[in-house]
């Protein structure tokens, strides 16, 4: 990988890519450059060496959203075209996270507000520290709660009622409230957030990567399908998985009472019958 990010740390080890936002003095606030670097990074992580991703922040915050001085102040000098270009850049990051066919785990170690809260929502799984707070605070600054895909993501995670509450009021909620809504999967002590996220990522990385990539694709693409369309889409997807070598490996491992060794790449298509 040739990317050399300046605002976050990227490490790939044993199938797990770890991204740590690294502007702790600004609670990992985002700048124009960070949005672009992160989007490019998630696009570049679609490589065989990466089977799962962990995203977290250094210091007391996960991500406090757009940097007030680095972004917000500059937006007041932009015309309509410049404003639209910016909002499209921010949305591109969310799309890249959602479309990366690897499980992405957010280790929310502190405050996640504005864009930071949307980034967490775009991840597949969310682990929060007991002191974490979430806020889709766009209405507090005179903006629509529907930003960066928030109104697409949240109803699918917490239901339309909770999503409306979060996006209309823009209030901060604590980790336990987020857990009750279904916004996060686990709430743990601060020192356990990143280790648990990495343990989950390791478990996923050691699992059937191709099948996990199909699961993520189905979770994304089945929204809006009818029941019949969803069943047919899953029939075709599962048939692909059954033709993959990992399916036979799981059978052989179970039969021989040994751990399965899933070696298939996340994006590798199964070989046709009789193909070497």
Descriptors:
single chain, alpha/beta, 2-enoyl-CoA Hydratase, Chain A, domain 1, Lyase 2-enoyl-coa Hydratase, Chain  A, domain 2, 2 domains, 6-stranded mixed sheet, 4-stranded mixed sheet
Task: Describe this entry's structure for a reader.
This protein has 276 residues and is α/β, with parallel strands linked by helices. It has two domains: 8-205, 2-enoyl-CoA Hydratase, Chain A, domain 1 (Alpha-Beta Complex), CATH 3.90.226; 208-276, Lyase 2-enoyl-coa Hydratase, Chain  A, domain 2 (Orthogonal Bundle). Helices cover 46% and strands 15% of the residues. The strands form two sheets. Strands 1-2-3-5-7-10 form a six-stranded mixed sheet, sandwiched between helices. β1 (8-13) and β2 (16-21) form a beta hairpin. The longest helix has 20 residues, at 80-99. It is globular, with a radius of gyration of 20 Å.
Distance between the termini: 30 Å
State the total count of DSSP E strands.
Answer: 10
Number of domains: 2
The spatial strand order of the largest sheet comes to 1-2-3-5-7-10
The CATH architecture of the largest domain would be Alpha-Beta Complex
- The fourth-level CATH homologous superfamily of the largest domain is 2-enoyl-CoA Hydratase, Chain A, domain 1
Given this structure, which CATH class of the largest domain is correct? Alpha Beta
Q: In terms of per-residue confidence, which ranges show pLDDT below 50 for 5 or more consecutive residues?
A: 272-276
SSE run:
EEHEEHHEEHEEHHEHEHHHH
What is the general shape? globular
**What is the makeup of the main sheet?**
6 strands, mixed
Given helix and strand content, the structural type is: alpha/beta
Fraction in beta strands: 15-25%
Instruction: Give the assembly state of these chains.
Output: single chain
CATH topology of the largest domain: 2-enoyl-CoA Hydratase, Chain A, domain 1
Helix content: 40-55%
- Mean pLDDT equals 93
What value does the Rg take, in angstroms?
A: 20 Å
Total of helices? 11
């Amino acid at each position: 990988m040739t990317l050399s990010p300046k605002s976050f740390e990227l490490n790939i080890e044993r199938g797990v890519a770890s991204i740590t936002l690294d502007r702790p003095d600004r609670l990992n606030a985002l700048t124009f450059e960070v949005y672009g670097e992160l989007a490019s990074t998630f696009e570049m992580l679609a490589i065989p060496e990466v089977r799962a991703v962990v995203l977290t922040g250094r210091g007391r915050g996960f991500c406090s959203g757009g940097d007030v001085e680095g972004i917000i102040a500059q937006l007041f000098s932009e015309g309509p075209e410049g404003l639209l270009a910016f909002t499209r850049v921010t949305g591109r990051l969310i799309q890249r996270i959602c479309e990366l066919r690897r499980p992405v785990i957010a280790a929310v170690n502190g405050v996640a507000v504005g864009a930071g809260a949307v980034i967490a929502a775009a991840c597949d799984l969310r682990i929060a520290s007991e002191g974490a707070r979430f806020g889709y605070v766009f209405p507090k600054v005179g903006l629509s709660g529907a930003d960066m895909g928030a109104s697409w993501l949240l109803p699918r995670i917490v239901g339309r009622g909770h999503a409306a509450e979060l996006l209309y009021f823009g209030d901060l909620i604590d980790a336990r409230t987020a857990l009750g809504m279904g916004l996060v999967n686990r709430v743990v002590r601060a020192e356990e957030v990143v280790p648990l996220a990495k343990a989950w990522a390791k478990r996923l990385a050691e699992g059937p990567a191709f099948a996990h990539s199909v699961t993520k694709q189905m979770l994304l693409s089945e929204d809006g399908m009818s029941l019949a369309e969803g069943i047919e889409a899953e029939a075709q997807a599962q048939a692909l998985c059954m033709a993959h070598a990992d399916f036979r490996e799981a059978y052989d491992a179970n039969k021989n009472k040994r751990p399965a060794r899933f070696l298939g790449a996340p994006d590798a298509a199964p070989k046709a019958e009789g193909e070497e």
